[in-house]
Amino acid sequence: MAPSDSGHHSSRRGPQPAAEGVRLQKVLAAAGVGSRRYAEVLIDAGRVTVDGEVVRGQGMRVDPESAVIHVDGVRVPTAAGAAVYMLNKPVGVHSTMSDPQGRPCVGDLVGGLDQRVYHVGRLDAATSGLLLLTNDGELANRLTHPSHGVAKTYLAEVAGPIKPATLGRLRAGVELDGRVVEVESIRVVSTHGAKVHLELVIHEGRKHVVRRLLQSVGHPVSGLVRTQVGPLHLGGLKPGKLRRLSREELGALYTAVGM
Fold it and tell me: Which residue blocks in the chain are alpha helix, DSSP H?
């Protein structure tokens, strides 16, 4: 379910007349970029853009709820209401906010939040790992739409051994349902007896795409974890745990989808 637009881009009011809005250096400081004086230094150096235009001098006022601000090309999120969380979804939990059959679901893990958020895309119940939740509809749409091609990294356990030719087939792309699934990269991470762990990076979001991809070359998946979405790494976040993205992570994510 895609959330409704949070207003990040709906009004596009950005720079404001002198009597309105908030001074840009104050907005940058409030967003955690640094002190107001440091923000002024960044502005003087031509390192700040607002709605795609380089800011040429001090004194600009902006609406922090709608202005699209970048420093050195990286988005600086300034809207107070925007929230993005990272969840390490455990195996057995369904990617829904509620479940009519009473099965464990993502909604059970985020009930304590003071903002209503929705999962971005899905991981099937048998797959664990990084799942994003947000109230920013535009961000969710861009993360899931194929045109933005956000990379997703998975660690898959399969039966080995795997021949180099099979890895070559995967790198060349495999056709599923009449359309080629492009694999950006794939490598053997480790081998434990008859089990092989593969890391693969794809841009697809089709249902069960990683499982179907590996099944098609004769290596059905026995375990699957999504470890990365775009610039975001799961890191040491424990299964079932949730955390809000840092300002730096959020900026990198917005930048990755062209916001």
Answer: 24-30, 36-44, 106-109, 137-144, 164-172, 209-216, 247-256
